[in-house]
Amino acid sequence: MRQALTAVLERDTTFTGDFATEPYEAAWAGEARWFVNTLAVSGATTVALVTQISPDGLTWCDLDGEEHVITGPGLVTWPVSHFGQWLRVRGTMTGDDPSATLRIYLTAKS
């Protein structure tokens, strides 16, 4: 029987600069998917999101370098595979006085 899980890593969190989510250990999972729901952005704020992986939850690198860009409210999602042990999302914000309110979910399946 397959197992599935949804982890809420950020709930209605307002970011005003670069950030990384709390790490999530998903070694048991064969596949995962990020869901990032943007509730609000200020002005010309742009948020670039990248999946990061780690063998120990302490040292991080980008999984594939693929950026997922947010410029306004809405939902963006992308699959993750071949990630090993730990997952997190790194966000880089640009714009004058950037601000974005996000909900970030990680779903995983064995």
Question: Your description of this structure?
Answer:
There is one protein chain. This protein has a single domain (4-109), classed as Jelly Rolls (Sandwich), CATH 2.60.120. It contains no helices and 10 strands. A hairpin with a 6-residue loop joins strand 5 (46-54) and strand 6 (61-62). It has strands spanning 4-15, 19-20, 24-25, 31-41, 46-54, 61-62, 68-70, 74-80, 86-94, 100-109. The chain is globular, with a radius of gyration of 14 Å. The chain is mainly β and 110 residues long.
Structural class by sheet pairing and helices:
mainly beta
Biggest sheet character: 6 strands, antiparallel
Give the assembly state of these chains. Answer: single chain
Strand content: over 45%
CATH architecture: Sandwich
Please report the total strand number as a whole number.
Answer: 10
Low-confidence stretches: none
In short:
The protein has 110 residues and is mainly β. The chain contains no helices and ten strands.
Brief descriptors of the model:
4-stranded antiparallel beta sheet, Jelly Rolls, 10 strands, mainly beta
Topology overview:
Layout: E1 4-15, E2 19-20, E3 24-25, E4 31-41, E5 46-54, E6 61-62, E7 68-70, E8 74-80, E9 86-94, E10 100-109
Antiparallel strand pairs: 1-10, 2-9, 3-9, 4-8, 4-10, 5-6, 5-7, 5-9
